[in-house]
Amino acid sequence: MSDVLNNEYVKNPIVGLMIGILVTVLVQSSSTSTSIIVSMVSAQILEVHTAIPMIMGSNIGTSVTNTIVSLTQVGDRNEFRRAFAGATVHDMFNWLAVITLLIIEITTGMLEKLTTALISDLQWVKGGGEVKMLKVITDPFTKLVVQLDKSVLMAWSTGKGPLVNETSLIKKYCKKACLEITTTASATTDLSTTECIKVPVNNSCNFIFYQTSLTDGQVGIILLISSLVILCSALITIVKILNSMMKGKMAVIIKKTINANIPYVPWLTGYIAIFVGALMTFVVQSSSIFTSTLTPLIGIGVITVERSYPLTLGSNIGTTTTALLASMAGEGDGLVYAIQIALVHLFFNIFGILFFYPIPFMRFPIPLAKKLGDTTAKYRWFAIFYLVFMFFLMPGFVFLLSLGGSLALYIVGVPLVITLVFVFIINILQYKKPSLLPRFLQTWNWLPMPLHSLQPYDACCLALPCCKSCRVADAGNNELSSVEVPKDSGLENQAFERTDTRF
Description:
Blueprint: H1 2-5, H2 13-27, H3 30-42, H4 48-61, H5 64-70, H6 77-108, H7 110-119, H8 135-145, H9 150-158, E1 176-184, E2 192-200, H10 216-245, H11 248-259, H12 267-284, H13 287-299, H14 305-318, H15 320-328, H16 335-356, H17 365-378, H18 381-402, H19 406-432, H20 455-462, H21 468-473
Antiparallel strand pairs: 1-2
């Protein structure tokens, strides 16, 4: 990470944005990536100006987790349609906010100037610390499995300190003992002083992977697989339990209560949801956990996409507290700059919400996410393609392209961006006002089929031996004419209306 973040090309804001995405996707946590970026700014390895696009990229990267979680409901088209739309509403908001605010930041420096003004009177700040919420409960268990030496991680990321050449993150010493050293002031007097020096105690740790013969990589793979199994099992269990509970009149009450608006002041409901999302994310100290918990609830129809949208926006606000707390734990001259970049993260999300929430017309992430939900319900393989392309291939391509210099980046990137914007505008006009377009642009049928339809790719995917069961399941039902939960009787599951095609 230190090598990537110190790359000379990160001074290009587009490259910095893509690196922020890649780093967050790799560590599966925006809290971790932003904390490391904040620490590097505090150590004055990164400048605030350079770190701003990275912070924006970390916001995009964090949404990969709940998008992956939505795949646990791929077996049911209806649930998957809602779950994927609910997961990608986070993606759409983050992408739109980044596109808008990065352009504003490059042209005006708004966020940097605003936060510079705010920190001008913060010279009194001397340091802070970590605030633990749910970690108070989970730490005793996780410390029995593995313990990491954060000082080694810090030395690696900054490239400074005596531990910079350490080869393992796993703790070697968990306790320190006092070694008393007595020194005599002079040979002619009996005056002496005793000084206590803290020294590490051997064999003082007690966890499963302590002094193991496995490498850090092998331990990491074991922990990753175990964590994914626990995560998926928990989420699938949640879905099964909620599906069994969503029956009868109580289910109708729950669904209507969660998705209802406050009487007389319905506009206030969304802002309360934003506050709830921020509070819950602050408690669990992770937006990925909160949004990943929402995803299966959206899939089974308990929460609509419209209601999940403000909750997700609040989650984006709540996750900024992690970087803010990390910034206040710093020391020295870089402390103020660390607080500044943490404030950039906060105001980036606040301005994004102000752009894409208060005015109902501007809530573009909702219809965009629903369109993705429709597409993935019809072509379920598209969900995997979306994940790989948006979070790995595209950021990786831009980063590799940047190695050729800014000129190569702009020669290839600018025409691509112009083409994408043109296609996007034409698609909107085809749907809303086709009469404004020339006859040949009113549809894309004049293009070869692979350039305007996913059907040829779908046929290729279904032709694979591994998709035999999909072909059988989809026989006679290739088109998704409507999305509803088929029930013989409304009494079996009254939480879902038979004709309800809403998300």
